[in-house]
Each structure stands twice: as C-alpha cells, then as structure tokens.
Design goal:
192 residues; mainly alpha; 0% strand; disordered N terminus
C-alpha cells in the first residue's frame, strides 16, 4: 500500500468518506497541511486502525523533519518500502524504537494508543509535571498503561492532548483509529 496521494484540489471531495465523521475538521486540517493522507484518492478510512508505518510518516510530517535515507535498521523494513525513510527519520530522531531488541519494526502492525502517545511525548521532549501514577489514577484503566509509556501518557493528559473516553478509560493497549490519530496529531501540531 502506498500511503501517499496527490495533493487534493478540494479536500471535501478528496476525502469523501469523512463528510459526516466526528473527526472531519481534524482530518481536513491535517490533510490540508499534508500531515495525513488518504488510503486512496477519495478515501481516508477514518475508522481503520493506524499502522506503525503510517504513524511514523505522520509524526515525521508533523515535525517537518528532513527525511533521512533508510540504512537497513530493521529486518522487516526494506529500502524500497514507501515508509522506509520515514521510519529511519523517526528512529534517528529518537521518536520510535523497534520491537524484538530493535531488530523488528513491525511496520504493518497496528499501533496502540500508548505507543502513539509515547512517540508524541518523545516529540514534545519533556516529561510530565506531576507524578504519572497520580495522573493515571483518574482513569478506570490507568493502571493498565505499560511502564515504558506512563510518563508520556501522563504528559499528554496534562497537556490536554488526550482526555480518554467518555466511560473514563484510556484503553492504552487498544489500536488507535486513523481518525483518533488525526485528532491527537492536530493537538500536537498546534502545541508543537
């Protein structure tokens, strides 16, 4: 799958499947800035799960980082893959890490909410101001946040980039949808 598309002339026509979606304004804003793209010329697929490769591209675009050429950092990423340079750039900027002792990136794997929050937290470049456990206790499943992600999840909550779900949960291990990612990246982009 090629995640990039031509620049849209008319965002509303370009992303026809978001016309009545709750995240329409966030997606349109990020698409207009070329931070997010559709899966096809007129399809954003807002309710599809975001992949790790897609999010590597999004965070690099949001930070307006200059692309670094892929240097073979992961066994499951090839130099010709559409996402290879984005993955390398995110790795070089200490935004991402691989899985399995850094040898595997799992580009087509679904990115979890806590993984995405960790990447954005690293991009912000500071730690939460409060005790992470105290911040997370205000959510029913705050104790389910992985230890590596606690400070970053706490930071995003404190900075009001993430506020959880109406039922009082964070769902840290759940995959994140493309719409949810667009909303959080919108907040990060305007914060950053």
């Amino acid at each position: 799958m090629n995640f990039s598309c031509k620049k849209p002339r008319n965002i509303l026509h370009y992303l026809a499947d978001i016309k009545y979606h709750w995240a329409k304004s966030y997606i349109e804003s990020m698409a207009a800035k070329q931070i997010v793209n559709g899966k096809a010329e007129t399809v954003f697929a807002p309710d599809d799960d975001m992949t790790r490769a897609e999010f590597a591209k999004i965070i690099v675009n949001a930070m307006e980082l200059e692309l670094n050429k892929y240097s073979g950092s992961f066994e499951d990423v090839k130099a010709g893959d559409w996402f290879a340079d984005y993955v390398q750039t995110a790795l070089d900027n200490k935004l991402i890490e691989g899985k399995v002792a850094g040898k595997v990136f799992d580009p087509n794997g679904k990115i979890t909410r806590e993984e995405m929050m960790t990447i954005i937290g690293r991009a912000i470049g500071k730690e939460g101001t409060k005790d992470a456990d105290t911040t997370l206790k205000s959510f029913k499943d705050g104790d389910k946040v992985s230890s590596y992600a606690k400070d970053y999840v706490s930071l995003l909550i404190e900075e009001k980039l993430v506020n959880g779900y109406p039922d009082g949960t964070l769902k840290p291990a759940n995959s994140i949808t493309r719409a949810e990612a667009a909303k959080i990246v919108y907040g990060f982009y305007n914060y950053y």
